[in-house]
Design goal:
The structure is a homodimer of 270-residue chains.
Chain A: E1 2-6, H1 14-27, E2 31-34, H2 49-60, E3 67-70, H3 78-84, E4 96-99, H4 104-112, E5 116-119, H5 131-144, E6 158-162, H6 163-169, E7 182-188, H7 192-203, E8 213-220, H8 233-244, E9 248-251, E10 263-264
Parallel strand pairs in A: 1-2, 1-3, 3-4, 4-5, 6-7, 7-8, 8-9
Antiparallel strand pairs in A: 5-10
Helix pairs in contact in A: 1-5, 2-3, 6-7, 7-8
Chain lengths: 270, 270
């Protein structure tokens, strides 16, 4: 299997690319093609919008590529997502797109456009403590659809998103249909007051209220409030589910960490 | 004129209340009634939702109150805004509601409900450097509709919002109709990458695209990016206006500072 790595938001570290390449070589069941665009830098981004878009469009249109693996999160895939989905080449279909965090903008828009996407670990995760396991998990899904990589409690069609990313794609052309979806949500590096505010936004959205249930992944690296917020992320999540009438499905095994599991967006079709 | 102060989000500092009371006494043209709820604390908030809602409902229903002045921003007015607007008492109409920042959730919902609202300085601003001038400006608008307090370039119906607050009320029951509105937006204490992401959300919203133009207030206390973002807030704003076809109307004289001007939401009716 041929897997192409592109970076629609921030640059990939060279040492991460090398470490993932070593893992792939040791496995011997796939080939990794890291696009040189991954190492471009322009301010915050892995090159200008035009370069990130061109690299993504190139691998989407390449019939020899069976999976497109987003290099890392950060910020910026939303800036090219709509353009990436314009006039889709035939070769864009029939391959898998995988990533999480900021890549959720692409997962959402691609899923909406009928492409096959999955939430899951990314190459840059290899630099995390225990990150090699996360990378192997992603490869096990991409290469052989190993069911042991999946989040363990998925029910019916599922989606997974970072909370802030999901909030920022509501009402945009990237927003998919959440009707009946097992919706897994995680967050990282935000204040709890901000998480409460973003959950207000989500829970007050008619489209989110059509989800089958919401489940709470890990909320990592919570920034300190100047005054203690007073509750925790579970109470916040339960509160907004209760207020909005959305079913709360308990915890989910996803997050910005090496334990992050795989969530294919179209599980019922497998 | 009788002005009631309530705190729908975070607690008011005692010294701020005292300083504003002293200003009001010296003016002699109005009476300030600071609701005791302003000094409650529960975690992050000025008392539990129930207490903040009850105080707000009380002053809204009080026919002797001619203006309701939100004590300060922070976070939390969205948690009570919908309930505050249910079964509006007759006395809620015919008075002015004033504040900014987090209070924008209330301004939005109240304006949508036909109440008379204005963006402008709040009591807690008195503790800012030069904050007494801001407080006098707010009082000059509330008490005598002094046109010199207004943002200087308002065209037709106008609204003003904090960017993050506006993003989080899109698609919720609080969202007003932006059609033909001169929309002024400011931001504070965010990373530029986050501002870019939030502007994507705004500019991709069909309802925001109905505004007459967007204008950029001050973007204060920008949090450092680990890598320099690469552009500034003006470039971000211009970029998203250009991408979305919304007219960019230049800078606006609002912000989280003592210079913050008044923006009545229904100016054409005056």
């Amino acid at each position: 299997m041929r897997i192409a790595v592109v970076a629609p938001s921030c640059p990939l570290k060279r040492e991460a690319a090398d470490a993932v390449q070593a893992i792939v070589t040791a496995r011997g069941d796939c080939e990794l093609v890291v696009h040189p665009q991954c190492f471009l830098t322009e301010g915050h981004f892995a090159g200008p919008d035009s370069a990130r878009l061109a690299a993504l469009r190139e691998v989407m249109a390449d019939a020899s590529v069976e999976a497109v693996w987003f290099a890392r999160g950060g910020y910026g895939s939303n800036r090219i997502a709509e353009a990436a989905l314009t006039d889709l080449p035939a070769a864009a279909r029939g391959k898998l797109y995988m990533g999480y965090s900021d890549a959720g903008f692409l997962l959402a828009g691609m899923h909406k456009a009928g492409l096959d996407v999955a939430w899951g670990p990314m190459p840059q995760d290899v630099v995390r403590d225990g990150g090699d396991v996360a990378v192997q998990r992603a490869l096990d899904w991409m290469v052989r659809r190993d069911a042991s990589t999946l989040e363990g409690e998925l029910q019916g069609p599922a989606m997974a998103f970072n909370l802030t990313v999901l909030s920022n794609l509501l009402g945009t052309p990237l927003e998919p249909d959440f009707t009946g979806v097992d919706l897994l949500i995680e967050e990282v590096s935000e204040h709890l007051y901000s998480t409460d505010r973003t959950m207000f936004h989500l829970a007050s959205s008619a489209s989110i209220r059509r989800a089958a249930r919401l489940r709470l992944g890990r909320v990592g690296d919570i920034l300190p409030n100047d005054v203690e917020f007073g509750t925790d992320e579970v109470a916040i999540f339960e509160d907004w589910c209760r207020r909005s009438g959305i079913a709360y499905g308990g915890r989910a095994d996803i997050g910005h960490d090496a334990r992050n599991k795989v969530v294919p967006f179209q599980r019922e079709t497998r």
